[in-house]
Amino acid sequence: MKILLITQNFYPEIGSGANRFKNLYTQLSKNHEVTVLTTKPTYPNAKMYKDDKYWNEPLINNSTDIMRLNMRSNKQGKTMASRMLYYLELSYKVRTYIRKYQHEYDAVYVTTPNIFLPWATFFFQKKLKSTKRILEVRDLWPDSVRDIEKINIDKFYPTLKFMEKMMYRKADRIVINNEGFRAHIAKMAPLKSQLFIPNAFTENEVGFRQPPEDFKVIYTGNIGFAQSYDQLIQVAHMLEERQIIFNVIGYGVNAHKFNHYIKKHNFKYVHTHEEKSRSECLDMIRHHSIQLSLLKESDVFLNVLPGKIIDGIGCGIPVVTNLGGYTNSMINTYKVGFAKEKATAKEIIEAIEKIRDNEQLEASYRENSRTLLDEKFLWENNIEKLEKFLES
C-alpha cells in the first residue's frame, strides 16, 4: 500500500504524539510505501532541536519520504490569535496537498489533535473510491478544549460538536489510542469500524532493571492545561516532607512555573530537569521506583491513557495515578500499580508509601508489567493489527 501520514508533530519532537507517528512510519515502512506530511520541529521550542542528540534516527534523517511544510506563522505563539493563524495556514497547506495528490495514495491517515488537520483532509474534498480515509483519534476535541479553563468556546460549542460528528462520519475507518474513546465515537458514528492501537514500545526500547537502592518517584512529560498543576505541587510538598526523592522532567506551559516554584521554596528532595530525548528519559525512568501521572479532575482528561503511564509499564516500574476509565481498570486489573479516579494528594502519597514499605508488592507490580507490556504495548505486535485494519 501507498500510505500518507498527516501529523502536526513528528520526530525528532518530544512528546507521545511525535513518538507515536515516528513508530507508525518506521513500522509501516517495513511493508508499505509511506510518506509523512508534517511540520518542522518546534515543540516545545525550536531551539532545542539544534542539539544533535534529538536527531538519533539516521534512517529517518536520510529519508526522502518526510515532507516538512514551511510555515510563516509560529506554532508556539503566545496568543490565541497567533496560534489560530498558524492552524489556518497549516490547514490550507494540507488541504492544497490533499486536493492535488490524494489520488496517489491507497490510504490517507490523519490524526487529531490538532482538529484542523482532519477537517482540511476530509471536508470539501472529493471522495475517491481508491483512497481510504483513516482518522486517528488521540483527543476528544472540542470537549478537551472546553475543559481547559483558560479557553471559553461555549458560543461555538454546538457548531464544533456538529463538525466533530461529521469528521467521524467522513472517515472510512477510525483508529483510537484509548479504549475510553470508543463509546463516545460510536454514539456519533455508530457504523464506523474502530481499532484500538495504544502508544507502545518497540522491542529495542524494552529494558527492565532491578529496583534502585534509594526509593525515588518520577514525573515525566507535559505540565500543561490538562495536567493537575496544583495537585502536582501538593504531592511535591508531601514527598519533600517525607524525604522521598522526586524527579520531574517537565515541559509545557506550566513547566517553567513549576520549576520556579521548586527553586523559590528551596526543595531538597524535589528536583527538576530540562527536556530530554526519549532514550534519555526512558533510561532515567528505569532508575526510579514509581512513575507518577496526575491529570485535571475532568471526565475528558481522567479517561485518557497518557504516554507516561505506558512509559512506566514499559520500563517495568509501578505507576500511581488519579485517572479513571479504561486506564484505571487496566492498572488495577493487571496489578501494575495504583489507580483511583480523582484520588487526592493524600491518597496518592499513601499509595506511594505503601509501595515503598512493601518490597514484595513492588516486585509483583514490576513482574506484572512484563505481562501487560507483551499483551498490549509492543509496536511489533500492534502494527500487524493495524495493517489488517487498513487493508480490509
Automatic annotation (TrEMBL):
SUPFAM superfamilies: UDP-Glycosyltransferase/glycogen phosphorylase. One of its GO terms (molecular function) is hexosyltransferase activity. It comes from the Bacteria. CDD domains: GT4_WbuB-like (cd03794). Residues 209-370 form the Glycosyl transferase family domain. This is Glycosyltransferase family 4 protein. Keywords: Transferase. InterPro entries: Glyco_trans_1, Glycosyltransferase_grp1.
